[in-house]
Amino acid sequence: MSSGSPLPKMPRIETGDFYFALWSHDSLPRSNSADVGDMARFEILGRHFMEFTVTEHYIGAIKDSDTLEAKTRDALSPDKYRFWFDEYELQRKLVTPPGVVAFENSEASHLEVVGAIYHNKGPQVTKAWIIALIDPNSQSEPTEPSPTGLVPPPSYYPSQPNMPVPPEPASPPPPSPSVSSPSANGVPNLPILALFNQYASQLRLDVRWEAECTGPPHQPTWSVRCLVNNQIYGQGSARNQKLAKDEAARQAWAALNFPGSS
Description:
- This protein has helices at 17-22, 41-59, 65-75, 78-87, 90-93, 106-121, 123-134, 192-202, 241-255, and strands at 207-214, 221-228, 231-238.
- By secondary structure, it is mainly α.
- It has two domains: 17-134, Ribonuclease iii, N-terminal Endonuclease Domain, Chain A; 153-262, Double Stranded RNA Binding Domain (2-Layer Sandwich), CATH 3.30.160.
- The longest helix has 19 residues, at 41-59.
- The radius of gyration is 23 Å and the shape is elongated.
- InterPro entries: dsRBD_dom (IPR014720), RNase_III_sf (IPR036389).
- One of its GO terms (biological process) is RNA processing.
């Protein structure tokens, strides 16, 4: 099947144990964090929330129960799940052992992602995203909540009219770097080295770094190789070892098909 309009952007799940568990194949070791647990739970959550959201979306316009049920089935048909699965490239996102098929059930995989987004972002963001999927002409748009989830306080307080309002800063503070903000090719940016080491450790991969310095002392060139399970997956060259290692980690991230790699 095809769609006349692009799919809405999938809400982003924050980097951490939960993120890594979602995009790791079941056969790979998972974090021991109590917050993660069995990821299959989120397929159940996703299925119930998808059905509820779709039914609620159409119930106002459809007055007949049989028609409503048929509309819900059509909106959540296997073909729709396969289309979303392909368009969001979920097959590419999952990290798998060699020779293992990433996803064998596109519907279950999509529903697990839905449940994970609900757990990570809450019902409002998830609901808006689902409605945009099934009804592109709807006015509902998925919006990411603020990082704190708090409403900004008012600039004055009626109960304290004489309280001075603090002056606005001359310029806004620079934004904090995001661990999971993607680069142009989809590979996470800084701190890529820490992120790579964390994810590789969770997968219990054997990672080694080989560094070599050439050139005159005042203008050295560092070359670093990233070996995973004794195979080279990334190489970097830069004026210092840290930059070279970052580049090697970035290449290895993409070569290993870690989450977000192109």
